[in-house]
Amino acid sequence: MRPELVAKYRHQRVPRYTSYPASPHFTDAVTADTYRDWLAATDPRSTLSLYLHLPFCQSMCWYCGCHTTVVRHEDPVWSYLAALSTELRTVAGLLPDGPVVRHVHFGGGTPTLLPVQGFRALMAELRTRFRIAPDAEIAIEIDPRTLTPEMVEALGDVGVTRASLGVQSFDAEVQAAINRIQPFAMTQTAVNRLRAAGIQGINLDLIYGLPRQTASSCVETVRQAVSLKPDRLSIFGYAHMPGFKAHQGRIDAETLPDADERVAQLRAMELAVIASGYVRIGMDHFARPDDEIAVAARAGTLRRNFQGYTTDAADLLLAFGASAIGKLPQGYVANVLALPAYLRAVEADGLATARGYRMSLDDKLRATVIEALMCRFDVDLAKVAEAFDTPAQDIMPDARALADLAGDGVAHLSGTRLIIPEAARPLVRSVAALFDRHLDPEGGRHSKAI
Fold first, then answer.
1. pLDDT confidence bin for 67, thresholds 50/70/90
2. Which among 441, 440, 412, 411 is positioned nearest to 428, based on CA atoms?
3. How far is the C-alpha of 92 from the C-alpha of 129, rounded, in Å?
4. Across residues 219-228, what is the average pLDDT?
5. Cβ(448)–Cβ(11) below 8 Å
6. Which residues are CB-neighbours of 224 under 8 A, at least 6 positions away?
7. CA angle (58 as vertex; 53, 61 as ends), nearest 5
8. What is the pLDDT of residues 301-336, one digit of tens each?
9. Do 378 and 372 touch, CB atoms closer than 8 A?
């Protein structure tokens, strides 16, 4: 990316657009009763995706932006699993008969920190409460530092098909700076055990922009990561926001790379991954050319949701657990954030809905445009408007803002087709923001564009 673009966009804050509108715009106008009505209105022919949030970790990584808590014993985990069971039973009871589950995703936190018997029971309950397709993808996020052989065996037994392992960096100095000591051999052992258990879909998550990180150490991390032959890799930029996540304040901001160095790290990692035979998927994912997500990207069917880029095209995303966010045709529903409040809400009501967002036709139109840009870097605005029976001019971006991006070479409008050139794709979120009617550029709630 050209230095002048880095200088211009380095302080811009924009959503990651895993949803539109972004979650800071959810309100308490959407309640548990709203959610009940939406569930009851579900088309029996719908397909479902289930997300279960397990908010527990053995220790706190200082870079983490997730909703999680450190636990030292199992009692809080068992209490949480009991509440999760209640929420699953409530939601399943509100749905009509017929919907089929195509995807299940366990996120966290560290889902594999659950007691093994608790995880087996949770998976058994899911199969009891919902119609899970025989070929459904069942994915789980894993911290290799706490993965036991007993849990690996359980993952294989219950039918897990994909595992996403957090790596971030293999540089020992960087690991010390983020409070996550994870030698390469530990990750290698976890990958080997997972494959031996029949879990062939392996994702590795890497991060750039961490304290004490350099472009050369980023490339070395990529070299070690690809030696494990994962199916997919993701490369995320660290968002330093200690005002929202207090533990990030333990990172010395003076050791963080500046915008120019962040761009250099990202570019070096991308080149190293592509040189190893992977293809780019959207903004920050990479995959083997024959992987189903790469096939979806070529076919124009790639999707984006709260888990990032995905092949998941389910009609409803039902989310369970503290802080979990679901999406239905009518809009978004979000559970309470705090663990004690979640337990109380489920005990009292069976649901823990605290807020959400009812989408208008305009919201759905803009969400479609933003997802197309995030997934394909290319959208025909007239065709999207036509699909929503809306005049094309209603979706055209502000002329002055578009001209500014076009002048920078970040976006190009040809008729009604908006294209993001390959060299400018790291700024795709800045282009997507053209269509965001809710964005407060001074709000500071989002990560930096670079």
1. confident
2. 411
3. 6
4. 98
5. yes
6. 170, 184
7. 85
8. 999 998 889 999 999 999 999 999 999 999 999 999
9. yes
Task: Map the chain to HEC letters.
Answer: CCHHHHHHHCCCECCCCCCCCCHHHCECCCCHHHHHHHHHCCCCCCEEEEEEEECEECCCCCCCCCCCEECCCCHHHHHHHHHHHHHHHHHHHHCCCCCEEEEEEEEECCHHHCCHHHHHHHHHHHHHHCEEEEEEEEEEEECHHHCCHHHHHHHHHHCCCEEEEEEECCCHHHHHHCCCCCCHHHHHHHHHHHHHCCCCEEEEEEEECCCCCCHHHHHHHHHHHHCCCCCEEEEEECCCCCCCCHHHHHCCHHHCCCHHHHHHHHHHHHHHHHHCCCEEECCCEEECCCCHHHHHHHHCCCEEECCEEECCCCCEEEEECCCCEEEECCEEEEECCCHHHHHHHHHHHCCCEEEEEECCHHHHHHHHHHHHHHHHCEEEHHHHHHHCCCCHHHCCCCHHHHHHHHHCCCCEEECCEEECCHHHHHHHHHHHHHHCCCCCCCCCCCCECC
- Report the C-alpha gap between 22 and 318 in whole angstroms: 17
Q: How far apart are CA 88 and CA 82, in angstroms?
A: 10
Alpha carbon 367 to chain centroid distance? 16
Instruction: Inform me whether the pLDDT recorded for 1 exceeds 80.
Output: no
Q: Does residue 21 have a cis peptide bond before it, meaning omega lies within 30 degrees of 0? A: yes
What one-letter code names the amino acid at 424? A
Is the link from the previous residue into 109 a cis peptide, with omega within 30 of 0?
Answer: yes
pLDDT band at 75 (very low <50, low <70, confident <90, very high): very high
244 confidence band (pLDDT: 50, 70, 90): confident
What are the tokens at 101?
A: 């589950």
**What pLDDT shows up at residue 443?**
59
Two structure tokens written together for 323: 């802080």
Q: Rounded CA gap, 110 and 127, in Å? A: 22
Q: Is the pLDDT of residue 447 over 70?
A: no
pTM here? 0.93
Residue 335 forms beta bridges with which residues? Answer: 353
The whole-number pLDDT of residue 66 equals 80
d(CA 120, CA 379): 43
Alpha-carbon separation of residue 409 from 12, 29, 412 (angstroms): 17, 41, 7
Residue type, 115: P
Q: Predicted confidence band at 68 (pLDDT cuts at 50, 70, 90)?
A: confident
- For residue 285, what are the contacts with CB-CB under 8 A and spacing of at least 6? 232, 233, 234, 235, 293, 308, 309
